[in-house]
Design goal:
By secondary structure, this protein is of the alpha/beta class. The protein has one domain: TIM Barrel (Alpha-Beta Barrel), CATH 3.20.20. The chain contains 12 helices and 9 strands. α7 links the parallel β4 and β5.
Length: 270
């Protein structure tokens, strides 16, 4: 059983929902990335989505695009990200870590090398924004052999036929994109999200977590009340950017922690 399934099973038994923060590895700097991961866990994160720095993050808005650029300028790359997860695992053997990003860095490393290294590092899941299920066959098989989940996105515009196809290939959880557009979009319609999540559940028994547009305690509570988890990215990356701009990268851990703590409290008391 994967750490991701174990995590969702434990949360379900407790009547709680997953808080899943995202940030780009190497932002605001490489030195504080592991501290950021541990800080997120301390403030209530259940699963960490760790972004792989990439030069052309086309599904992301300006906030996360800039985070990728900062990380690349800091010298962060896929090999270093995998080493970072391995370091995190030295003192945390339970919190699932999902690598989120784009296929190009993985293709450059080579699928087999990536899967072997990711398994050795303690990676639990992979989400490639630009990997359709039709092209995932061999890569998916290699991940399955190492008990690493392959997570897919479903959008508001995804057809029922495609939802079925995606759900047949996915493991770990489904990432439902609550808004049309890129990351950092602003307005959430929670009733519409609720209806869509319920519809997706007709196609899969996997947990359905929702991302895009979650920015505070009330929005995290609203989304988690109708899904299995809230995925939070841009609002945290904004705090990281503020720390970088202030010349105090070490303060990013505390800034992000305050945001997560408020969301965790709202979700648990909702």
């Amino acid at each position: 059983m994967s750490r991701i399934q174990t995590c969702f099973d434990a949360l379900q038994a407790q009547g709680r929902k997953a808080l899943i923060p995202y940030f780009t590895a190497g932002d605001p700097d490489k030195a504080n990335t592991v501290a950021m991961m541990h800080g997120m866990v301390e403030q209530g994160a259940d699963i960490i989505e760790l972004g792989i720095p990439f030069s052309d993050p086309t599904a992301d808005g300006v906030v996360i695009q800039q985070a990728h650029l900062r990380a690349l300028k800091n010298g962060a790359n896929l090999s270093w990200v995998l080493e970072t997860v391995k370091t995190f695992r030295e003192t945390n053997s339970t919190t699932p870590v999902v690598l989120m990003g784009y296929l190009n860095p993985i293709e450059i490393m080579g699928y087999e090398t990536f899967v072997e290294t990711a398994a050795d590092a303690g990676v639990d899941g992979v989400l490639c924004v630009d990997l359709p299920p039709e092209a995932a066959g061999r890569f998916r098989s290699q991940l399955v052999e190492k008990d690493i989940d392959l997570i897919f996105l479903i959008a508001p515009t995804t057809t029922d036929e495609r939802i079925g196809k995606i759900c047949s290939q996915a493991s770990g959880y489904i990432y439902y994109v609550s808004l049309k557009g890129v990351t950092g979009s602003a307005t959430l319609n929670t009733e519409e999200v609720s209806q869509r999540v319920q519809h997706i559940r007709n196609y899969t028994d996997l947990p359905v977590a929702v991302g895009f547009g979650i920015s505070d305690g009330p929005s995290a509570r609203a989304i988690s009340s109708t899904s299995d988890g809230a995925i939070v990215g841009s609002v945290l990356v904004k705090e990281i950017a503020a720390a970088a701009q202030a010349g105090q990268p070490e303060s990013a851990v505390g800034r992000v922690g305050e945001k997560l703590a408020a969301m965790r409290t709202a979700m648990d008391n909702g």
